[in-house]
Fold this sequence. Notes:
- By secondary structure, this protein is of the alpha+beta class.
- About 40% of the residues lie in helices and about 15% in strands.
- It folds into two domains: about 1-80, Winged helix-like DNA-binding domain superfamily/Winged helix DNA-binding domain (Arc Repressor Mutant, subunit A), CATH 1.10.10.10; about 80-140, Ferric-uptake regulator, C-terminal dimerisarion domain (Dna Ligase, domain 1), CATH 3.30.1490.
- Strands 4-3-5 form a three-stranded mixed β-sheet, with no helix packed on it.
- The longest helix has 14 residues, at about 45-60.
- Residues about 1-5 have low confidence and may be disordered.
Amino acid sequence: MKRDTGYNTKQKEKLVDYLVRNKxxxxxxxxxxxxxxxxxxxxxxxxxxxxxDKLVESGLVRKFVIDGKMGACYQYIENTEECxxxxxxxxxxxxxxxxxxxxxxxxxxxxxxxxxGFIIDPSQTVFYGVCAECSxxxxxxx
Length: 142
């Protein structure tokens, strides 16, 4: 049986610290790896993936898989129900993740379940566009 020896404890702490400080956005393994290297605590990508998997299993981190072409994104959510009952908005310009509590969208969720027999997981549903700050003063459309 393999036991946890505590190896790379400082790196693991820095990984969690990075996730906590960036909990308002999705992050990926490449961003985490670059941060750890810049902090003088490089960690291999395989180790980062293993640590992220453990954090996902524990309920502290949510894993978002957009499609099979891109790597997964991760977000620190703590172990609460707060992030499980609403949809998300993701800004394509600045990367900000907005938690959207909207009764209208929950109505759509209920409609799809009742009329189409499909249960949507709001915590895994992300709408992509441009946030108010990025679109202010800009005529650009997505």
